[in-house]
Design a protein that fits this description.
With 299 residues, the protein is α+β, with helices and mostly antiparallel strands. Helices cover 41% and strands 26% of the residues. It is elongated and about 90 Å long.
């Protein structure tokens, strides 16, 4: 195959291809490399990749040309490499690319240059981002931003399994907004929605980092508490109750305030997800019957 036909073949590829000699001087740059980076062959051929034209960075923002360059490493040891990086586009922005480097050997097996092939990952990154958004949408309550019931059910199933298989203790708090119907009747559903968002955000701000918050339905929320004891549940429930009690929304000159009633239970040997929810729910109703704005934990 002649050099001309080889270049034509490389120019027909969707992936960017460029080659450097032993001094890291760019000696070849195909059409796809021009398209992906914005740099034409005439702008880069003859320059050194160590001049940092592409300025590859990793996912943490580290400049690879300073000391972690896959291409330079291949020049040093003759081994092929692959990495996901961000290349610098001539227009200034970053382009996500998958790079693969490989040595080019002469007929005696001596390395004379290195080729880097890079694939534009922009569509793949966009797809991953869209899938992540779909995942969030599938498991997030759109009104309050906390997990939805499905998310809570999956988390409960997982925690129950860990409890049965590995004795990893957990507990559940069941939180219900007191007199929520009166809020809707007096102020309307828009204000009611604001109250739910206020309560959800307050719960999320009060719980520990490892705790899981989900909207169970209507004005009900659950908090799944890993490594729980009755004392931990009681303390956390009381913090939620007291903090919500001091929250309010201003409507004109009036405050819209609510309280919450909370029930809790620690998982026992024979509990299922449904049974522990039932226990915590029963304790929540006990709190309702005994004055509301209180915390009751199953003993």
């Amino acid at each position: 195959m002649t050099d001309i036909s080889a270049n034509a073949l490389l120019d027909s590829l969707f992936d960017g291809v460029y080659c450097v000699d032993e001094e890291r001087r760019i000696i070849y740059w195909n059409k796809a490399a021009e398209r992906i980076t914005g740099y034409t062959a005439s702008e880069v051929i003859g320059s050194r990749c160590s001049d940092n034209i592409l300025r590859h960075i990793d996912n943490c923002g580290n400049e690879l040309c300073i000391g972690m360059c896959p291409l330079f490493a291949t020049l040093q040891d003759g081994k092929s490499r692959e990495a996901a990086v961000y290349a610098h586009h001539k227009a200034g922005h970053r382009v996500p690319v998958q790079v693969r480097t490989a040595p080019i050997l002469d007929e005696n097996g001596v390395m004379t240059s290195v080729v880097e092939i890079f694939t534009d990952n922009a569509n793949q990154v966009q797809m991953v981002q869209e899938l992540e958004k779909l995942r969030r949408d599938a498991f997030n309550d759109p009104l309050t931003g906390v997990g939805n019931r499905r998310y809570g059910e999956i988390a409960l199933d997982s925690m129950t399994y860990e409890w049965r298989m590995h004795s990893v203790a957990f507990g559940l708090l069941f939180v219900d907004v007191d007199h929520f119907k009166k809020v809707n009747d007096r102020w309307g559903h828009d204000v009611g929605d604001e109250v739910l968002k206020m309560v959800a955000q307050t719960i999320r701000n009060v719980v520990r980092g490892l705790d899981i918050v989900a909207r169970w339905g209507g004005e009900e929320f659950i908090v799944i508490v890993p490594q729980a004891t009755p004392e931990i549940l009681s303390s956390l429930g009381e913090r939620i109750r007291a903090t919500v009690q001091h929250c309010f929304i201003m409507k004109g000159a009036e405050k819209v305030e609510v309280t919450v009633s909370i029930g809790g239970a620690v998982a026992s040997d024979d509990d299922s997800p449904a049974s522990i929810v039932g226990k915590a729910d029963a304790q929540m109703y006990y709190s309702k019957r005994h004055g509301r704005s209180r915390v009751t934990i199953h003993q």
